[in-house]
Write a structure and sequence with these properties.
Order of helices and strands: EHEHEEHHHHHHEHHEHEEH
Shape: globular
Number of strands: 8
Largest sheet: 8 strands, mixed
Distance between the termini: 27 Å
Number of helices: 12
Helix content: 40-55%
Structural class: alpha/beta
Radius of gyration: 20 Å
Strand content: 5-15%
Length: about 325
């Protein structure tokens, strides 16, 4: 229960199943400590973890929406679009329309991340200089900041609990610093941005197709942080495809973004969500509940999602 008896939900977080540093059980513990009424665990591009998240929620006796965040794109704008999916179940053989879609993304992401890690490790061991000096000579980081014992095996150890390898796992194995540390940010930008040695990305499914796939597999689709990704122009097309909600409250949304999302919700009949996008030490928000949506604002459609969880596997 929040301040003055207001019930608050954090409906966007990530666990060790993708690119978060805390397990679902730890997220639940932090949500309880923050006085939240419920949370959503929305790991990237996978349904295989949903049963485990639900089991953790039932064991803890705490309201949790087991969902996912689908990485998508809009070909017309060239921008990435993220879509949250709720009320879903994995099939026994992974044959559902959404499962087939995200499986390709997950495979491509994992392969790309491992290539990035291999490229960094190769740079560290090139020439006659020591590992850190070699990496610094490649324009990646100052000597003494990166771990000279960095290897692909270390990356695999960091992401062992998850469904794929992410850049956050590479960074954890390389510098052992939280995302918010200034040195972390310098290394990250020098490696993965601009002319960095590990700049590489993958293709993503069309956002409209992602919404359709969520609906076809029996789920509810919510547009994630449209202000962060400037995905406003695609909203009408997503609504036509079956979009039902929009994330108005997010750490990267200022007042203008929030009001624009609320206006879009009113125009298109969408329900409103919000969350911290919490990744633990792998992200910026300080903790669960750093950004929330009040139960009254979320309304009966979000309440219905929590009720629906009881019957899902």
């Amino acid at each position: 229960m929040g301040e003055h008896g207001v019930r608050r939900f954090d409906l966007h977080s990530h666990s060790t199943f993708s690119d978060g540093s805390f397990s679902p059980e730890e997220l639940i513990g932090r949500a309880r400590a923050a006085g939240l009424a419920g949370i959503a665990v929305t790991d990237h591009d996978s349904l295989t973890q949903l049963s485990a998240v639900r089991a953790a929620a039932r064991e803890a006796g705490f309201p949790v929406l087991a969902g996912l965040e689908v990485s998508a794109a809009c070909a017309a704008t060239g921008r990435k679009v993220h879509v949250l999916g709720f009320g879903l179940e994995a099939t026994a053989d992974g044959s559902g329309p959404l499962e087939r879609m995200v499986a390709g993304t997950l495979r491509a992401r994992c392969a790309n991340t491992l290539w990035q890690a291999w490229t960094i490790a190769r740079a560290m061991r090139s020439g006659s200089a020591g590992p850190c000096d070699a990496l610094s000579a490649a324009g990646v980081a100052e000597p003494g900041l990166v771990d000279p014992a960095f290897t692909l095996d270390r990356v695999a150890e960091v992401c062992a609990a998850g469904t794929a390898a992410y850049k956050q796992h590479v960074m954890e194995a390389l510098v052992h610093l939280p995302y918010t540390d200034a040195s972390y940010q310098r290394v990250y930008r020098s490696i993965f941005k601009g002319s960095g040695i590990a700049v590489s990305d993958i293709g993503y499914p069309e956002a409209v197709d992602a919404v359709r796939a969520i609906r076809e597999q029996g789920g509810v689709a919510v547009l994630a942080h449209p202000g962060q990704m400037n995905s406003w122009s695609i909203i009408p097309d997503l609504v036509d495809a079956g979009l039902e909600g929009i994330e108005a409250y997010h750490p990267d949304h200022g007042d203008a973004d929030r009001e624009r999302a609320l206006a879009a919700a009113g125009e298109h009949g969408l329900f409103v969500t919000g969350g911290s996008d919490f990744h633990g030490r792998y992200g910026a928000p300080a903790g669960m509940g750093a950004c929330t949506v009040d139960a009254e604002v979320a309304g009966p459609r979000v309440a219905g999602l929590f009720e629906r969880e009881a019957g899902l596997r």
